[in-house]
Amino acid sequence: MTPTLVRQHLHHAGPTSPADLSARARDWSEIQERMLVPLYEAVYERLEVAPRTRLLGLGCGSGLALLMAASRGAAVTGVEPSSPERLALARERLTPMAPPTAPGTEGARARAARVRLVDGPPRAAADGTDPADPSRAAYDLVTAFEPIGCLAGDSEGLGELLADAVPLAERGAAVVLAGWGPPERCATAAVLRVAAKLADPTRGAGSWRPALRDDLEEVAQRAGLAPDGSGRVACPFGYADLDSAVRGLLSTGLFDAAITATDREQVDKELTEALHPHQRRDGTVWMPNVFRYLIARVR
């Protein structure tokens, strides 16, 4: 199985009906995606993302990270090869809604020219021309914010995305990779073990595993990138109640192999039980976590 097929398999091994996939994408957008906002903010602040930044977001999901970069003035292109449902939500977030004849049309057109979403592999984003400066044809920042390190096969899937994306970036461009932190620093790791317990151990790709210290560095090395710094960011997972926590966690795809090996009802039951120790008296669920990011440079 090629890395691309592995990555698509990871996302779609669980729910397969259009209604289920759409609902899960909405849960990701409305519940889970915001948990990584501290990660996005830390990276953008460190790399000084600004109007001159030309960003290519790999696995852009429903577009929250792109929206935050665009709010800093960056020209952003998002690529989402494995979830058309998330990409549709990104279009809702990022596409200006003003009609051509509306007041302020020129401003809307300028914003639209600096936001692009691509349904396909990174090579489909090869036209990276900045409308404000056509001579700058390459991206100077590539982000892969979907954390790796908890699913067998996820680093291989990221490696294939980078093989397509790195040639589109200028020399010296920053490439940001993200991953789960040490299991002892991630309260959610104990909950994710439910996925490992329920998944068929013979499945291989798609089964949960603990994050390893050098996951990001190994991906960067295979992609021919030069490491240039790293950091850790606290990204607590907070939910209004147990139902929201279950829906948010299932939307990540980390439980897909468990759902396929057993069934959704069994996974819901055991996931809810695993979340009980993290439920507070007011009914909310709170799990402190630490995520890592690696900054690497295109040689």
Automatic annotation (TrEMBL):
Task: Locate the transmembrane regions by residue number.
Answer: none
Q: Does the keyword Methyltransferase apply?
A: yes
Q: Which GO terms describe its molecular function?
A: methyltransferase activity
Signal peptide (residue range): none
* Ranges for region Disordered: 1-22, 92-111
Lineage: superkingdom: Bacteria
Record keywords: Methyltransferase, Transferase
The question of whether Glycoprotein is a record keyword is answered with no
- Gene Ontology biological process: methylation
Protein name, as recorded: SAM-dependent methyltransferase
Q: Which organism is it from?
A: Streptomyces broussonetiae
